[in-house]
Structures are given as structure tokens and as C-alpha cells.
Amino acid sequence: MTSTSDTLRLTTAQATIRWLANQFIEVDGAEMRVCGGGFGIFGHGNVTCLGEALYGVQDALPLFRGQNEQSMGFAAAGYTKQWLRQRFMFCTASAGPGTSNLLTAAALAHANRLPMLLLCGDTFLTRLPDPVLQQMENFGDPTLGVNDAFRPVSRYWDRITHPAQIIQSLPAALATLLDPADCGPAFLGLPQDVQGWVYDYPAVFFEKKVHRIRRLTPDPAEIADAVELLKSAKRPIIIAGGGVQYSRAVAELTQFAEAHHIPVVETIAGRANLLNDHPLNIGPIGVTGSDSANTIAEAADVILAVGTRLQDFTTGSWTAFAKDARIISLNAARHDAAKHRSLPIVGDAITSLLAMAKGLEYKTPPDWVAFAQSERVKWDAYVADNVAHGNRPNSYAQAIGVVNALCDPRDRVVAAAGGLPAEVTANWRTLGFGTVDVEFGFSCMGYEIAGAWGARIAQVEREADKDTIVFVGDGSYMMLNSDIYSSVLSQKKLIILVLDNGGFAVINKLQNNTGNESFNNLIADCPTIPEPFGVDFEAHAAAQGAIAETVSSPAELGEAFKRAKASPRTHVIVMKVDAYDGWTTQGHTWWEVGTPHVSDNPKVTAAHKDWEASRDKQRKGV
Q1: Is 383 left (phi over 0), alpha (psi -120 to 50) or beta?
Q2: Which whole-number Å values give the CA distances from 346 to 176, 185, 215, 217, 342, in the listed order?
Q3: Where would one find the signal peptide in this protein (predicted)?
């Protein structure tokens, strides 16, 4: 590296990393790097140049060695969720399959509106050595490659074809990562030759900069319209989504609900906005929700949706609400605020709630609040019975109840895909704000352990004395488990509960519920498996360096969980659960899935007619 008083001669890779290391953010009054570091697997597409640049900043931007590129992306998602999108991690992968392995993780981050920076190797810009190892050739367009596949799953996409381009591209990428409306993955393709090319960069480009996440001020006319509509409400509810937490608006939403006595229901992403015992917390809503929340949602005349994209598991495929119910949608993203005949408020949750409160002299009718609370009492009784264990088969709900009773209020719980998101959403009783991560935005199998590893890295930075607890089924475990090893290597302890029901049991349940025979989901029902056998998950986890044990009952699980809390490193507890009995059977709205309109199987035909019977309740979105 050479320099003058005004310039620094650096490679593209060196300049990229130097700039990133000098970007800071203000969190709770303290300045810290906006990028907490990265996850990386090196190959010929990123080791020589980007690897050289990262070597010199190990203290500022620690690089965690991944085992799988997809799981690195999941870990980055878990990290930024723990930091409420105020900080993020980068992922770096080599050209070819290393980068393409990140596609699923980018899609997960895009669906969940999560910041993730992808610094990925790309084909040589000069094309002199083409075709190279792992290059995907497009016969009619040599500019196209694997990295172009990231365009639909990125909020910002660029291929750096000259060293000077990062002067514009890096700030634009960071602006996307920190934007409350457009937040999502930012992808930078870094051709292998361009990474090493030099340029005389302006020295001022690398000066320290402190960023702040903007709070969008809502339009006064939209606030006025919302206030007038709320004043007319006889049966209002608030739907609290994940955006409430990302806006750090939990206190303001709670104060708004208390001031106007409005019952609150939570989305999957919005779990842990209110504590379990808050009198206005009526429970989780939707397909994986509660009878209490869904009952009042169906009867509500005005719905204030805060920080939610109103996906089908929240809306029951748009059957959860009365067709004439009015929706006020408060969201930083215009796209989400305008859905389904909503009266939109495009703005930050805190600024918008405070603006609404100024003009709203209103109290919900007491009989409506009393009705909502009585429904919650009934739901609480159901959950208490559902998680109880005794003379009944082992279930997800029982395991959830055991952990819920023994964990610290600030422990973080992580689940994703399969049956556990529904069971955690319905049965978990929130003890601490922002402590539940149920990844159901992309419903991605394999997120659980990897996402928890990333969350644990962030949690150690914030609350090192608390635990990160993973609920994972055997299906997701088999799909992606190598970050048990990552957590052991990096000394980021996890408590992992592997609940083994013999395959993809929740999809088998859906298969059966639609009249189909069990087929290719449970290991025992796969015709291509002559002799089914179970995996020794305890031995497998122990082989990756974890402390591992197997228990046979919820009572034994409780004792094992106590040992896991005291454990110095990642602790895996395995318990078999029943594939058919013990599911949470109440609290579900209708959910639209495609069922066969004709079939030779009369059970399938009957199930189709039964499934379609609720369609007349569906709002058509106009």
C-alpha cells in the first residue's frame, strides 16, 4: 500500500474491508461498528484477495469460519435479529457453488426484511482464462453468471467491474441495509481479478462515520384518517408484528394499548412484544395462533396492524377477519402498508403511534375488553393442560412447557419450520421482551441451529450470562446440523433440544388431514426404505464436540435441561415425541393449501370439500 496525503492506493478488496471497518452505529447511546464481523468459507474466488484484506482486520471484523455457506447466511440472520436489525454480519463465499449455496439464506433474509451483506467471488472480468473452474457459462450472454441468480432475492445488487465503483456502491449497499422500509440483503459480486486491482482512493472515503437508522415521520393526513376510524371502533384490536421490535417500539405500543384499552394480538414474528401476563395480551393470531386471538379477530370491526406484512399465517389466508372489518396498516414499508384495502400509515412505529395518541381521545368499550380477556383465560387453561405431562405420549408442547418453566426470562428461544413453530407460537408463555425467534417468514428448515449460533454470537455481545435455546425436529436436524461444531469451536454455547418424531411429521399430518395416505414423510412410510432405523442423535452431536444425552420423558428432560444450563459448552438433549398424538389441536384458523379437486380416493375428495367449506369467509383483497 502506498499513500499520499489525499489518497490511499489499495486493492478493491482492501478498500472494501477498510471502509466497512470504519462504519459505526449508535445503539442505546453507545457507538459500535455497524458490522459485527463475518462468516466465511474461502475458495479460489475469495481467499487470495478478500482473505488477505480480512486478515489485517481480525480484531475489528472477526471472521467466523463456517461449515456450510447456507448456514452462514442463517447465522447472519440470527445475529441481526438479536440486534434488532441495528447491526449485521457479512458472508463471504467463493465463486461458483460456494456463492450459490447462499441463495436460500438470501431469500430468507429478503422474506424477513433482514440486513445481510454478501461479499461473493465472481468470474474474471477480463475473461482471459475462461472458462474457469466452477464457472457457469451462458452461451448467449457471457455477462450472466451464477451471481445473477441473487437479483430477485437481494434488495441491492451490484457487480464491481472497476475498483472505483465501490466509492458509490458500498454506501448505497449500507443505506439499504439500514433502511427500515427497504431493508434486506445487499449483494456485491467481486470478480476475482478486480478484487486485486489497485486504485488511488480518496482518504476521506475511509474516515469514521456514525450512522443512525431513520425514523419515518407519517403523513398528518394519514394519521388523521386513522384517528377518525379508531374513534368509531366498537371492537378494535391491535396486531403487533415483528416491526414493533425492529422499531424498538414495544414500550410505545404497550402505552398506546393501555391508554385506549385496546386488546393486542401478536404475529409469529411479533411474539414477545408483550409479556404473557399483560392483561391486554390476548395471544398469538392466525394459523398457528390461539382461540382467544382468533375469536376476537373474527369479531373485530377495526384492526390496527403495526409492523406486520400480514402474511397468510397471520390472516388465516384472509379468513381471520370479518369481510367488513376496516384495517389500519402502520408500516415503514409502503408495500406492506397498502395491503388489502388498508388505510395506510407509512411511517415509523414510534413516531406514528405517538402522533396518533395526540389526537385520539378514545377508550374501548369495557364489555369488548372483558370479552377478549375472558377468551384469553380459556386459552391459558388449554395451554396449561396441553403442556402438562403425565399419562400421555411425549409431545412438542410438553417439551416446550418444561423449558418454559425452567429458563431465565432473558434466555432466547429459536425455532423454525416443521411443527415446532406452531407449537412454540401457541404454547410458549413469554417471560421477556424480544426473546422469541420463530423463523416462519421463509419457514426454512435448517435455520434452527445455524440461526441460533448467530444469535448466540450477538447475545454474548449483549447478555453473555443468558442462554440461547434451540427447538429442532429430527428432520431439520438432519438437513443442517454442522453448526453444533461451529458453536463448540467458537465457544458460543447453545442448548439444543432435538425432538425426534421419526421424519417430517407435520407434513405427514397435513398429508393425512387432506385425506392422503402417509407417504414419504415419516421414515416408516417411505417405500424406498426397506429397513427403517433411527439416527443416534446423541452420538452424532457428541462427535461434533457437544455434551449430549438422551432422555425418555418430559420429567427427565427437565433434569437434563438443568444440567444443560450449568454446562460450559453446547449441550444437546434428545427426546422422542409422538408423530401422531400430542399436537396442539386448537387455535388454528383456516389456511389455504392446494387440494385435489378430483381423486380416486374418496377420503381426498371429502377432505377437499371440507377444506373448501371455509373459503366463503375469505377476503378477496379488493
Answers
A1: alpha
A2: 17, 22, 11, 8, 11
A3: none
Closest C-alpha among 600, 483, 573 to residue 77: 483
CA distance 327 to 238: 10
Which of 327-341 are b and which e, b meaning 16 or more Cβ less than 10 Å from the residue's Cβ? bbbbbbbeebbebee
The domains spanning 2-211 and 220-378 adopt the same CATH topology: yes
Residue 341: the pLDDT is 85
Q: Which residues contact 293 (CB under 8 A, 6 or more apart)?
A: 265, 266, 282, 283, 284, 285, 286, 379, 587
Amino acid at position 71, single letter: S
For the cut 60, the answer to whether the pLDDT of residue 622 exceeds it is no
Measure the CA dihedral 562/564/566/570, to 10°: -170
> Per residue in 458-491, pLDDT tens?
999 998 899 999 999 999 999 999 999 999 999 9
- State phi, psi for 497 to the nearest 5 degrees: -105, 115
Q: Which three cell numbers stand for residue 503?
A: 421424519
Q: Please list the helix, strand and coil fractions of the chain in percent, rounded to the nearest 5, in that order.
A: 40, 20, 40
- Average pLDDT, stretch 515-533? 95
Residues 123 and 619: their CA atoms lie apart, in Å, by 48
The secondary structure element, H or E, covering residue 424 is helix 420-427
Q: Per the structure block, which three cell numbers stand in for 301?
A: 370491526
Burial letters 417-446, b for 16+ CB under 10 A, else e:
bbbbbbbbbbbbebbbbbbbbbbbbbbbbb
**Interval 343-360 mean pLDDT:** 97
Q: What is the pLDDT of residue 139?
A: 94
Q: What is the CATH number of domain 2-211?
A: 3.40.50.970
| Residues paired with 188 in a beta bridge | 119, 158
Residue with cell 375469536: 295
Region 323-331: what's the mean pLDDT?
96
What are the two backbone dihedrals, phi and then psi, of residue 414, each rounded to the nearest 5 degrees?
Answer: -125, 130
**How does residue 339 score in pLDDT terms, banded at 50, 70 and 90?**
confident
Predicted confidence (pLDDT) per residue in 170-223, tens digit: 999 999 999 999 999 999 999 999 999 999 999 999 999 999 999 999 999 999
pLDDT tens, residue by residue, 364-375? 999 999 999 999
What strands, in cross-sheet order, belong to the sheet with 185-191?
63-65, 35-40, 88-93, 116-122, 185-191, 156-159
How much is the pLDDT for 595? 95
> Which of these, 74, 84, 92, 79, lies nearest to 36 by C-alpha position?
79
The fraction of the chain above a pLDDT of 70, given in percent, is: 99
CA-closest candidate to residue 113, choices 309, 313, 344, 343: 309
Whether the Cβ atoms of residue 156 and residue 179 lie closer than 8 Å to each other: no
Beta-ladder partners of 303 = 237, 327
d(CA 574, CA 560): 10
Does the domain at residues 388-576 carry the CATH identifier 3.40.50.620? no
DSSP assignment of 105-174:
HHHHHHHTT--EEEEEEE--SS-TTPSPTT----TT-TT--GGGGGGGG-SEEEE--SGGGHHHHHHHHH
Going by CATH, does the domain composed of 220-378 fall within 3.40.50.1220? yes
- Provide the 10 A C-beta neighbour count for residue 312: 17
Q: Domain segments of the chain: what residues? A: 2-211, 220-378, 388-576, 595-622
